Structure formats: C-alpha cells, structure tokens
Amino acid sequence: MEHITLAVYILLLAGGAAGTAGLAVMKIRTGSAIPGKLLVIHLVFYGGLGLSLVYYYLNAVLGLAPATPAMGILAVVSSLIQAGLYLMAFIFLREIAPGTQRFRILYRICRIFCLALGAVSGFAALFYGMVLLGLPWKTWPIPSAVTYSLVGLTMLLLGLYCILTPLGKEVPAVVFLIRGWGIGFLLFVPLSAAEWAFKQYGTIAVGPLSLDYLFFCICSGVSIAAAFRSLRARPAPAGEIAVSDEAARRFGFTVRECSMVPMIARGLSNKEIAAELGISPATVRSHLYNLYQKAGVRSRIELLNTLKE
C-alpha cells in the first residue's frame, strides 16, 4: 500500500510539473501578469505537495512518529506554506481587480478572507513551533469544523469571483485560464467538505492522500490546456486595437465580444476566430452581429474605426 501511495504522489508531482510548465508558457506567450501570479501560487502549492510526500515517507515508510522533531519541523513549514498560499491569492486578486462597482464588494470580501486564512495558517505555524519547543499550549484552539468552513467559504468566493468578474482586456487564453481556476476553486469546496466528514466520522478511510489534491490536478490540467490555446493563437501585431473598459461600458459589450475585437483587427475570419475561442462559427457571427448593433455600425472596418475614436 505504501508503494502505491508513493506512486500516486509521484504522479501528482509530475502533473504539477506539467502545469507549472504550462503557466510559464502562458506568461511568455501572453505577456499578462496573471499567469505569472498563478505560477507562483502553483509553485507554492507544488512545494506543499512535495512536503506532504516527505511527511508520508518519514511516517509510513521509515516509521517516524508525529511527535519527533523532524515531523514537527515539517508541520511548521507546511503551515507557513499554507499562509504563503493565501497571501499570494490576496496579491493575485489585485491583477483581476473589478472595473465595475458591481464586483467590488465581492473582491474586497475575497481579499479579507484570504488575509484571515493567512493569519490562521501563520498562527498554526506558531502553535506547532511552540509544541516542537516543548512550551505550554498543547491543544489546537480552533475546531477543525471552523477551519474547514473558513477554507471552503474562501474557495467558494474565489471561484465565484474568478468566473464572474469581467476580463475584457485579457486575451482568450488568459480568460480561459482564470475561469478554469475558478471552477477548480468551486470544486475544492465539496472535496474539502467530504474530507472533513470522512475524518470526523470515519465511515470511509481517506488515507494519507488528500481529496484536496484533486483541486491541484484540475488547476494543472487547466493550465496545460490554456498553454496549448496560447500556442495556437496568432501573435498580435503592434498597434492592435483593444476595447477599453470605458468603451465596453459605453457600448455595453460583453467579455466575449471584447475578446473578439483584437482578432477582428488582426483580420481573422469567423472560422479562425471560432477556432481560437473554441466556439462555433455561427456563435462568432452572432457575437459579431451584436457588436455591430451596439456600436451602430455595419462592417468590421466601421467597428474598428469607431473603437479607434
């Protein structure tokens, strides 16, 4: 059983390495700051996964008890990694700050929860450090249900924000990346709840592997898929037309419609736009019709001239 678990850990690490490479490709290809921030989050989570592998190997294979100094040090470092994850999420949110008042409240709540979880994780590192040094305060004061609830609520808010917030200025591959990570955040919630129930009531043995690792697999897969999308996309020429937030609000353009304008400026056909966005040519024609109607124009050239003004 130990060898099977180690093999699963190694597969997770291999998938994480592929996801890391995908985010690096995205950063280079798109020039957006968002893949870079997600790359840091991914690497920190990747480090935590590697630490879990070391912990499992020392405990299950070598037989070290959790109370030994080596295991205590790992617990402290693991808590610090978790604190770093939530602080990086706090910083990442600044890259997709809302351009409209509609999402500003959700944005602020997400950042507050990220800071709160970072503080809880830092407190956990302090607690494990005190236990390691043999100081008083032997019992963790925060119930596990509270911690799991706080984590689940934070992930739920992050997922909703990443999926719903407008991203008109970003290229389609980056939009796909953020939306995909948002879905991963949402899926984390039931996985985390199930794991807490398994540990609490013991009806099913989860074992040393965490259900949360499926979240890591999802985000790695999304990162790889987004990297392939960015590689398929044609590089944008200098002076490419993009829709400003002001123009998007004035004309009432949707995020998808905004993302099509740079492709129109590059001279892509409806079929080529459909291939880049992963939609049908009929859907592209529908979006193009909506762009014309909202901007009060009749052709692509008129649309681009209107947006230049």
TrEMBL record:
Arranged from A to Z, the UniProt key words for this protein are:
DNA-binding, Membrane, Transcription, Transcription regulation, Transmembrane, Transmembrane helix
SMART domains per UniProt = HTH_LUXR
Q: Which residues cross the membrane?
A: 6-26, 38-58, 70-93, 105-133, 145-164, 171-193, 213-231
Question: Which example biological process does GO assign this protein?
Answer: regulation of DNA-templated transcription
Q: Could you tell me one molecular function GO term of this UniProt entry?
A: DNA binding
Query: Where do the coiled-coil regions begin and end?
Result: none
The superkingdom listed in its UniProt entry is Bacteria
Report whether DNA damage shows up as a keyword of the record.
no
Q: Which residues form the HTH luxR-type domain?
A: 246-309
Query: What CDD domains does this protein map onto?
Result: LuxR_C_like
Q: What is this protein called?
A: Helix-turn-helix domain-containing protein
